[in-house]
Amino acid sequence: MVSNQTPSGARTRPYRFGFILNTSIGNMTRYLNLRKYAEQDPEIELVWAPVAHYTPPDMPSRLRFLPDPLFMRARVLQQALPLLNELASLDAVMIHLFEADILCSLRSYLRRDAVHVSSTDEAPITNRAAYPLYPSDLTKPVWRQKLRLAIDMWRVRHTDLFIPFSRWAADILVTDCAAPRDRVYPMHVGLDLDLWSCPPRPLTPGGAKPKILFVGTDFVRKGGSLLLEVFERRFRGRAELHLVTMQAPKDAREGVYVHSDFKPNDPRLARLYQESDMLVVPTTADTGPLWVFMEAMAMRLPVIGTDTGANKELVQHGKTGLIVKIGDGAELGAAIETLLDDAELRRAMGERGRELVESRHSARVNVPLILARMKDAVDERRGVDSSRGRRGSHAGA
Q1: Which fold has domain 3-190+362-382?
Q2: 0.85 surpassed by pTM
């Protein structure tokens, strides 16, 4: 549903921006943080179209006659269409949805409306051997892979400004897709550090079992099964394993605790981070950087992750955590052992992680910078020489 701060068409401020944003799983946190700090900008009228990919089976819809894949895409467009219909009255629109991106790019052939801003954690799959492919990507026939890449390359040519979540995605856009360097500004919305705060950590009290934390909706893809196997083989009785997921095995296991009802920015999750000693998410495929890594680091936790997508931009090996090979149980166990055996190392990594999040991933800082990029692009189209300071980094930096 589109929501406005002011009645449609009643322009009272210099800029009017629209946002068509994915709100599925971790993206809900991004949407909430972006909205909170964007609404503090007195220069912008804001129009929001939060879009959920998932539709409950019992929810009535006139689109139910469509096959499941088409139904999902049609529902996305159904939620985005009210805002897309307002493009003529917007100065810029930020999109984080493939389907809405397509329609916005197609519209550019007919008329030049709002500045088209693409902001996503993904990048076109130009090199399948190096890209962190999700299970659904692995099974696609060759013709679908080629078609999707052709569409993505076309979208790049018809997008005015890119604000990807990471330098990893920015590099692919510039190097492989020929996006102009001065149109690519990697910047993550970041965390609301008003919600994610933690005092310096004391050492784990003597006699208390250390807590290993896993957070991931897709339990298997995020490496939860491997972590559970390693825990049962090497650390049962020595530590506790806390799983924040809705897909964990149902059978009760000694020393394993499942939390399945946490919400985005949930204070109970913040407390669990604060009570834990490390976050371990040995994901097999993620474009990253993962929200849970940011949350853990904000709570001064060391992180164990894998080298996939942009993860290493957060998990700096030996500094803020440890990087292990995908699917390597022995290496994962050794990394957990290293942190379990050295409380001072855990604390030092946690402090450096907090410093990194504060300096690069604070929503209070990043959201105004993102909005400034959008304003600059609008001013350029208007022929106005913007006097705003150009802070932040771009793909050529």
Answers
A1: Rossmann fold (3.40.50)
A2: yes
